[in-house]
Amino acid sequence: MKTLRPMDDGRSAFTLVELLVVIAIIGLLVALLLPAVQAAREAARRAQCLNNLKQLGLAVHNYASNWGCFPSSAIVDRNVQATGNNVSWGVHGRILPFIEQVPLGSQVNLVEAWDSQLVIDGVRIPVFACPSDPKSSEIRDTGAGKPRLYPTTYGFNLGVYFVYDPVTGRGGDGIAFPNSAVTWAGVIDGTSHTLLASEVKAWQPYRRNGGPPSTNIPASAAEASTVVASAGEAKTTGHTEWPDGRVHHTGFTACLPPNTRVPCDIGGRTEDCDYNSWQEGKNGINGAPTYAIVTARSFHPGGVNAVHVDGSARFYAQTIELPVWRALATRAGRELVPNQ
């Protein structure tokens, strides 16, 4: 009697070596594809960031059409000896009705301190944050009984270095400063050659309230680091209070090119820092002048997005020449700005 054998269908199983080769090939393809996917995601985030800046530019246009001037960085009462730490709203709060936040804008009181108005508690406004900034969604607890706030990653142009003198009321050379009322006609350098806003980083370390050792504008990161070291207070909360009108929250300055690293000591650690020589309005008519090194920064490789006064937005490389970057920040410096 013959033994029956199963029919051979011509198929054979993978060997272990073949399986390992296939896995290695798949791993190699993934390794090759991953950077392309990450680059595509970053390109999409950068495009969204640029669109956010365009919306902020349009909002400022609508504000100017409604009020006849661009929004002030803060409103400071020069007749009082001292003002509250968070007494004045910044540009972000003043344009709320023009960024599809009419209900919120109608509930806030711009003449009262923002830190007593819980209507803004936990409110996240997407157009205020770049999706590439990993800390843009980290909420800030500003204290008991005060609103919790999401940071902003966009700062408005407060000029090159000098911001405000409470004694004379003189303001800086940017689009906004305390008590400013800059009009279209006041942008003598041209709206297409003047910056309105640029990217900044959320939760940026900074030092404040010490006064600059010199009113000369620092020309390098090393000089800026010396100035920053003169300040008394060290913080790690820059641009985390979008309603606040102080330059380290609402603005940026063009003292240094984008993404310039300014080393300073924060609690024994070396951090990349910003600087405010004296908080605007903190001691009213007795206050010292405000000089600021609040650098435009981003998490986009190689530079920052920015929007001009005319509403056009573009990417600026961090290799931009310093005189050109500063010229873009002045509204009436009469500099010749080459096509970028």
From TrEMBL:
Domain DUF1559: 38-321
InterPro entries named among the record's database cross-references: DUF1559, N_methyl_site, Pilin-like, Pre_pil_HX9DG_C
Domain of life: Bacteria
SUPFAM superfamilies xref list: Pili subunits
PANTHER family listed in its UniProt record: GENERAL SECRETION PATHWAY PROTEIN G, TYPE II SECRETION SYSTEM PROTEIN H
Name of the molecule in the record: DUF1559 domain-containing protein
Species this chain originates from: Thermogutta terrifontis
